[in-house]
Write a structure and sequence with these properties.
The protein is of the alpha+beta class. The chain has helices at residues 2-68, 187-204, 214-224, 251-254, and strands at residues 92-93, 106-114, 123-130, 134-138, 146-151, 160-161, 168-171, 180-183. The chain folds into three domains: 1-68; 92-204, PH-domain like, CATH 2.30.29; 214-254, no CATH class.
Length: 273
């Protein structure tokens, strides 16, 4: 009996030791898992922190870039015309009085626009760009701050002085919204802008704003004579034939203000001059 009791006690002790060993092993595994979990959490946190930091830096950099960006209305290239072509002479008009000498020029200047046509005294500052194609208003010297854009082809009325507002002009907005306005501190500037627009309108009608060559004037005078008789010329009487028949069905001739072609029309497949 004593022998059996000793054996049972020994077995019990062995089982207790085994259970304790298992518990210690489980705790160790759990501890390692906790350590790994903690490590992963710290790693992920650092990663997220770095990502957020990079994101913030990236956003800040982007914001700086956006702040420092200079659009075409803020940094007009003087040797680029209204068509985007490279030219030899400065094509940007910025100083009053402005004089248009070429149809590809751009007038760019500050002015004010009326915010409520019921009270023309309410005005805000803006920047205006005018060329042979359109009128554009910006809130500032920034192409991202566009207020309105009017194509001359869509405008139904000619620009005119705004009644009751000295130094102000009004333009047909070509939309259902309010018309566009432009105000200066003097009527002289307003008249100058009207002359600029008038010259651009001539461009739209086919005038290149260049002096007519004397030789062409002579030929035109020949056409004006009876039966082509020379009215003036150094070579004596001479017949000059010219086909004066209109090109029926040509929409560019019928309404050049709407169908303005800034570049020479080239028929596909023909040789360029």
């Amino acid at each position: 009996m004593k022998s059996n009791n000793k054996i049972q006690i020994a077995i019990s002790l062995a089982l207790i030791l085994l259970i304790q060993i298992c518990q210690i092993s489980t705790k160790t595994d759990n501890t390692n898992k906790d350590k790994d979990l903690l490590k992963n959490t710290i790693t992920n946190t650092n990663s997220n922190t770095n990502t957020n930091t990079n994101s913030i830096k990236s956003t800040t950099t982007t914001e700086k870039l956006k702040t420092n960006l200079k659009g075409p209305s803020n940094n007009l290239l003087p040797l680029r015309n209204s068509l985007g072509h490279k030219v030899k002479k400065n094509s940007i008009l910025t100083k009053f009085p402005m004089k248009v000498k070429s149809c590809d020029q751009i007038a760019f200047f500050p002015g004010q626009y009326v915010t409520d046509l019921d009270d023309v005294r309410l005005r805000k500052n803006g920047y205006y760009a005018i060329n042979a194609h359109s009128l554009t208003i910006y809130d500032d010297k920034d192409s991202n701050k566009l207020i309105h854009h009017v194509l001359w082809a869509n405008s139904k009325k000619k620009p005119a002085h705004l009644n009751g507002a000295k130094g102000c002009l009004i333009f047909d907005s070509a939309t259902d919204g309010a018309d566009v306005t432009l105000c200066f501190d003097s009527k002289d500037k307003a008249n100058n802008v009207l002359r600029v627009i008038k010259d651009f309108y001539k461009c739209r009608m086919g005038d290149n704003l260049q002096p007519i060559p004397k030789d062409l004037i002579r030929k035109l005078m020949q056409v004006c004579g009876a039966n082509g008789k020379i009215i003036s010329g150094k070579k004596g009487p001479k017949k000059f034939k010219m086909n004066l028949a209109g090109r029926a069905g040509n929409k560019w001739d019928s309404n050049r203000m709407v169908y303005y072609q800034p570049d020479p029309i080239i028929v596909p497949g023909t040789k360029k001059n």
